[in-house]
Design brief:
With about 300 residues, the chain is of the alpha/beta class. It has twelve helices and ten strands. The strands form three sheets. The chain has a five-stranded mixed sheet, with helices on both faces. The longest helix has 16 residues. It starts with a helix and ends in a 5-residue tail after the last helix. About 45% of the residues are buried.
Length: about 300
C-alpha cells in the first residue's frame, strides 16, 4: 500500500461511527489480558501506526523491535497524525497497532469519564473502546500532559498551579497542538474545572519546536508539553500543578485490533511494557530531540541493550 492509498483509507475510515464494546479488562502487567476477540493472528504481519510526535514514534519502533524478535513481520507507519486520524485507521484496517496513553485515550473515547487511577482507567477503557479493538496491559512508563510556563512568567504573575491561571483570565496566551483547544485535557477542561479563560489559543505543534520556541520567545505564556520532555528541566520551565486532578494517569498502553491480538503479540508487547520505565522513555526522547538521532535507531539500540534484539 502506498502513502496515497493509506491516507485515503485513513480519512475514509474516519467516517465510521464508534460502536460500544465490552471486553475483558486488565489492570496491570501482571494481569491476564483478555479481549473481545479470540481468533486474532499476527502471523500475516502487523502494521504499527504512530501519532505525530517524537515519543510515539519511538514507542512504535520499540513495539516493532519486540514483535520482530518474536518472529512477527512488522511495518511501521510513523507520524500519521492525531487520534482523530489514527483511531479510525486502526478500526478501518489501515494499521493494526498503536502505542497509546491511558488517560488521553479514555478522554478521547469518553469525554465524561472520571477515573484517574491507572487500574480503574484500564477497566473504563475496555468499556469505552469501539468494537474490534482492545487495550493490552499497561506498561511501567508513563507520560502525562503538562501545562508549562517560564520561570519569569511564574514569578511575574504568581503562578504555581492551574488554579492560579484564573487570576489572569483573558490576559494569557496558550500554545498547543490544534486539537488541544477542544479536548478536556486542554482548553475545555481548564475552563470547566479551573474556570480559566485565555486571551488567545495559538495552534502550534504537539510538544514540538513550534510550541517550545513560542514559549521561549514569549509569543505564548502557557504551553502544553509532555512530562517526559527534557526541555522542561533544561530551560527551568515551571510545570503548573493540578490540584483538581484534571490530568489523568497516562501509562503507556498498546491499542490493538482484535484481528491481530494473539498470544505472540501480547507476550512481545508485555515484555516491552515490563522493561521500559519513565526514565528510559525520557532518555530516548532526548536522544531524538537533542542528539538528533533517528527514532528507529534509538528504539533498536535500546532493544539490543535490553536483550530483546540480538
Amino acid at each position: 500500500m502506498n502513502r496515497r492509498t493509506l491516507l485515503g483509507g485513513l480519512f475514509a475510515a474516519a467516517s465510521v461511527p464508534a460502536l460500544a464494546a465490552c471486553s475483558g479488562g486488565v489492570t496491570s502487567l501482571k494481569g491476564d489480558a483478555s479481549g473481545s476477540g479470540g481468533g486474532g493472528s499476527s502471523k500475516g504481519g502487523v502494521t504499527i501506526g504512530t501519532a505525530n510526535f517524537t515519543e510515539n514514534q519511538v514507542l512504535g519502533y520499540l513495539y516493532a523491535a519486540a514483535l520482530t524478535a518474536a518472529g512477527v513481520r512488522t511495518t511501521v507507519r510513523p507520524n500519521l497524525g492525531t487520534r482523530e486520524i489514527v483511531i479510525p485507521a486502526l478500526r478501518g484496517g489501515d494499521i493494526d497497532l498503536l502505542p497509546e496513553y491511558q488517560g488521553a485515550l479514555l478522554n478521547y473515547l469518553d469525554p465524561k469519564a472520571v477515573p484517574t487511577e491507572q487500574g480503574a482507567m484500564q477497566n473504563a477503557l475496555t468499556l469505552a473502546l469501539p468494537a474490534g479493538l482492545q487495550v493490552l496491559p499497561y506498561g511501567l512508563a508513563e507520560d502525562s500532559d503538562a501545562f508549562v510556563v517560564t520561570r519569569a512568567t511564574a514569578s511575574r504573575y504568581g503562578l504555581s498551579s492551574l488554579a492560579d491561571l484564573r487570576k489572569r483570565n483573558g490576559k494569557l496566551v496558550i500554545g498547543a497542538a490544534p486539537e488541544v483547544k477542544k479536548r478536556r485535557v486542554g482548553a475545555v477542561g481548564l475552563r470547566e474545572v479551573y474556570g480559566v479563560e485565555f486571551k488567545e489559543f495559538k495552534s502550534l505543534d504537539s510538544d514540538g519546536p513550534l510550541v517550545k520556541g513560542a514559549l521561549k520567545k514569549g509569543d505564548v505564556d502557557v504551553a502544553n508539553l509532555f512530562t517526559t520532555d527534557t526541555d522542561i528541566e533544561a530551560n527551568g520551565w515551571v510545570v503548573l500543578s493540578d490540584p483538581e486532578h484534571l490530568i489523568p494517569s497516562q501509562h503507556i498502553v498498546p491499542l490493538v485490533a482484535d484481528r491481530k491480538a494473539d498470544d505472540t503479540l501480547r507476550k512481545a508487547l508485555a515484555r516491552i511494557g515490563n522493561l521500559l520505565t519513565t526514565a528510559d522513555l525520557t532518555d530516548l526522547n532526548r536522544q531524538v530531540d537533542k542528539d538528533k538521532k533517528d527514532p528507529e535507531d534509538v528504539a533498536n539500540a535500546y532493544a539490543r541493550r535490553k536483550g530483546i534484539l540480538r
